[in-house]
Amino acid sequence: MENKGKTQVHFVVENLRKIMNDNNMSGSQFADRINMPEAKLNKILNGKQNLKIDEISEIARKLQMREIDLYTYPEKYYPVNKDDSITKALLTIELRDDLKEQILNLVFKNSNIELLNS
Length: 118
Prior knowledge:
This protein has helices at 8-22, 27-33, 38-45, 53-62, 67-72, 97-108, 113-117. It is an all-alpha fold. The protein is rod-shaped and about 75 Å long.
């Protein structure tokens, strides 16, 4: 398994490289963007200095991203504005017979009550 031994922070470091490359930024430009000294960024990217959790939060903020998206880059953890996504849900409601009609009318506002009653 190729990811064996890699920490979660290691994935963030790899993704920072991807973000930098995807935006055609030099190390200097990227360091300026995230407000970090270039020497420190180079140490982090080369594995010579650890990246702290609060630094991940600050980098995400500077990149206008969420922390989780630094771990999952280029995918977003929760897809945003996906118009073609459909949420399916199965709902089971057990009702006493004397309340059935009243509840179904309340929930479905008389729409297709005939289908639900069958």
